[in-house]
Amino acid sequence: MNNEQPINTDSPKDWNRETQVSWNTNASVWDAKMGDDGNDFHRLLVRLATEKLLEVKEGDRILDIGCGNGIFSRRLASLGAKVVGIDFSEQLIACAVERTQVQDAIAYHVIDATDETALLSLGENSFDAAISAMALMDMAEIAPLFRALTKLLKPQGCFVFSVMHPCFNNPHISMVAEETESDGEIKTDYSIKVSKYLQPTITYGLALRNQPKPHLYFHRPIHLLLGEAFRVGFVLNGLEEPAFPANYPNDYLLVWGSNFSEIPPVLVVRLKLLA
Ligand SMILES: C[S@@+](CC[C@H](N)C(=O)[O-])C[C@H]1O[C@@H](n2cnc3c(N)ncnc32)[C@H](O)[C@@H]1O
């Protein structure tokens, strides 16, 4: 995913606009890939770990931030939650509405998660929990979201989010397969080569190989990612690092799958507000 083209924009507002154009442009390809229920990456890694940390209860009111075509919103609704799904891509929200049955208790809104005032219009102290599935590394700014969440969540509420693992699945990694011959046997070892981690970076990348327009990735090392949350009073009280199981079928050599079952492509964390 090393796609370090120069970025022609110079402020978070420009980056955000550029990101929004990309997600609108890529919406139909993304929607076709994720379908009603998500792909294996979503179901086996993101969903399982998020649900483990979230512990959804019937009737919980949950905010899904960067909901895309609504895969997680629908899943949460099927578990009995009342869901509000937000995304700044009008096109993806249209896909989400299209794929959602009237009886699902989901309200979708086009809202920019970098706009604190717009977020607060959703209602202070009105959510039992919030989630964000694989979206924070796509957001130009995350401080406004964390600030807003301190007000949107009820006192015992939690925020569970997943991101591309900043250590092992950032825009500066290479996936490596090395073949060796030893004692008459050929063996392949798989590893991840990390060339950058500590500096935050903004680079173009591809979430899907066939997406029409590359979009910006906002890589943040873990201390900066969580530092934004700690600054406004969140504490970390749950963490998962899911990887594909060793028996997962591997169709290709160098994609996330059982070849990399020892290396987590996703980081999932649960944050709570200090009482
Ligand atoms: C990788 S997709 C994940 C979508 C969905 N959560 C899923 O799991 O399929 C990232 C999503 O974040 C959304 N996004 C990025 N920046 C955003 C922002 N500033 N406000 C709202 N949504 C944003 C994109 O439009 C896109 O739908």
TrEMBL record:
<keyword id="KW-0808">Transferase</keyword>
<dbReference type="GO" id="GO:0008168">
    <property type="term" value="F:methyltransferase activity"/>
</dbReference>
<dbReference type="GO" id="GO:0032259">
    <property type="term" value="P:methylation"/>
</dbReference>
<dbReference type="InterPro" id="IPR029063">
    <property type="entry name" value="SAM-dependent_MTases_sf"/>
</dbReference>
<keyword id="KW-0489">Methyltransferase</keyword>
<feature type="domain" description="Methyltransferase type 11">
    <location>
        <begin position="63"/>
        <end position="161"/>
    </location>
</feature>
<dbReference type="InterPro" id="IPR013216">
    <property type="entry name" value="Methyltransf_11"/>
</dbReference>
<dbReference type="Pfam" id="PF08241">
    <property type="entry name" value="Methyltransf_11"/>
</dbReference>
<protein>
    <submittedName>
        <fullName>Class I SAM-dependent methyltransferase</fullName>
        <ecNumber>2.1.1.-</ecNumber>
    </submittedName>
</protein>
